[in-house]
Amino acid sequence: MGSTSLNLIWAVVVGSVSLGALFGALLVRVLSETCGRRNALIVNGIFNVIGALCELFARSAKSPELLIAGRFILGANMGLTSGVVPMYLMELTPARYRGAAGTLHMVAVSFADWFSLLIGLPEVLGGADLWPYAFALPGLPALALCLILPFCPESPKYLLMTKGNREAAYSAIEQLVGSDQAKAVFTDLIRESARDKSPNGTFRELFTSKKLRLPLTVSLFIMFAQQFTGCTAVFAYSTDMFMNANLDPQTARFSTLAIGIVYFLFACSAPILIDRVGRRPLSLFQLVACLFSLSLLCLFTGIQQYAEAAWASYGTIGALILYMCVYGVGSPIPWMITGELFNQQFRSTAVTVSVFFAYSMAFIISSAYLPFQQLVGVTFSYLPFIIVSIVSIFVLYFILPETKNRDVNDIVNEARARTHSVSIGSPWHAVTQEGREEMRRVLDDISEGYSSISN
Question: CA–CA separation, 22 vs 72, rounded Å?
């Protein structure tokens, strides 16, 4: 083949994962509502094994088409997993442990990130002969998932609120907490179900309902803010960044592995911090710290490039390490907060939209970053992330509610109070306790007025 044909196939191979993730994100609502949360993960695991087998035999079959198909399937697994796993874990877990459960998914992802970097090294499985085994390795945990999950309970919330099966829901609760506590947990679930008797929400209702507009905006904006911390670009091009800091290619690869391990270690702190600190403070801390790290990265890269100061390369390396530390602490929040902003009726629908939006942003940023970097240079390529991060921090500071141990209605009321304060030109009023309580009273009075008119 000529270089043009090879480059085209290479581009399709690389992009097939992102396209598969977008497709998988669209399946979150369909599979999680028709099959259930647990069974959707079993179906996902089966296709994961099929994708891994395509990767394994692509080289021996001399088929780039098989390689592309396998990567597309594994990408779809990523998209589906990102939506269903946090939702399943959070629906299984009591409210006081909900935050920790929601973060475990991203802790596992951060482990997989550095482990994939390890097995992709030429010294491990990344060589010319062994790379099919590296690509096929995800099939092993997927196979284990398919064998273990049938013995795990389905989400009691799904069984009761979506399927209306009280006996199956009670049985799942007994399996989770034991017969002694099952009755109390089931009673709480019945109360929650009584407040939420609506049928499953559609995409049209999600986008057209005025009462859902605010939580949807918050969930998408926090996902947008995280993607524009530059995480996609840093993960995709960290080796190039280290090489720009005058490291040789081999050292740059090992440095990328090292910051992947650092990211995992700091992500492990998220389950501990999220219920102690809260979602809102932790999310704002992550965004501010990532902004600071990106600013340092831009500064040291500029000094290194334009002032030709050799010492600045150490600053660049330090800024990258700092970035991975602070990013890991709050990285799970955007992936789990959508499940807390919506009730059972719209939860799977909203998660589908949120995950699809996240992978769309990741695909756009990863595709556009390198051409943009070649256009403006390495130093100025960080400026869009810095500017958008400043705006995102300012906006989320005023509109992002705390969701820890709170009912969906209470969360949405706080978000409405914050937005109302911004709309009347008093944004600082929203961040004080007195201001929020006053806004809640006003909104409750308005809601009661509408109810009396309707009656």
Answer: 10
Task: Please choose, from the candidates 69, 137, 338, 111, the residue with its C-alpha nearest in 3D space to the C-alpha of residue 221.
Answer: 338
143-178 burial, b for 16+ CB within 10 Å, e for fewer?
eebbeebeeebbbbbbbbbbeeeeebbbbbbbebbe
Distance CA 50, CA 177 (A): 35
Q: Would you give the distance in Å from CA 20 to the centre of its chain?
A: 16
Q: What is the full per-residue pLDDT of the chain (455 aa) written as tens digits? A: 777 777 777 778 877 888 899 999 999 988 988 899 999 999 999 999 999 999 999 999 988 899 999 999 999 999 999 889 988 988 888 777 777 787 888 888 889 888 988 998 888 898 888 999 999 998 999 999 999 999 999 999 888 888 888 899 999 999 888 888 888 888 888 877 776 655 667 888 888 888 788 888 888 999 999 888 888 778 777 888 888 777 888 888 888 888 889 889 988 888 888 878 888 888 899 999 999 999 999 999 889 888 878 788 888 889 988 998 899 888 888 888 888 888 777 888 888 899 899 888 888 887 788 788 888 888 888 999 999 999 999 888 888 887 776 766 677 677 666 666 655 555 555 555 554 555 455 445 544 543 444 44
Contact call for residues 30 and 95 (beta carbons, < 8 A): no
- Residue 281: how many CB atoms within 10 A of its CB? 16
* Cβ partners under 8 Å of residue 2, min gap 6: none
> Do residues 25 and 359 lie in contact, with contact meaning Cβ atoms separated by under 8 Å?
yes
Nearest-angstrom CA–CA distance, 333 and 222: 9
Spatial separation of the C-alpha atoms in residues 431 and 424, rounded to whole Å: 14
Amino acid at 287: L
Torsion of CA 277, 281, 286, 287, to 10 degrees: 170
Q: Among all chains, which residue has been given the structure tokens 């650092």?
A: 262
User: How would DSSP label each residue in 172-216?
Assistant: HHHHHH-HHHHHHHHHHHHHHHHT--PPPPPHHHHHH-HHHHHHH
Quick one: residue 94, left, alpha or beta (phi over 0 = left, psi -120 to 50 = alpha)? beta
Which candidate, 196, 211, 192, 191, places its Cα nearest to that of 413?
A: 211
Q: What is the pTM of this model?
A: 0.78
**What is d(CA 452, CA 193) in angstroms, rounded to the nearest whole number?**
24
Residue with tokens 């799970």: 332
Residue written as token pair 């801390």:
285
Report the Cα 228 to chain-centroid distance in Å.
13
Residue type, 50: I
Listing DSSP states for 101-134 in one string gives HHHHHHHHHHHHHHHHHHHTSTTTT-STTTHHHH
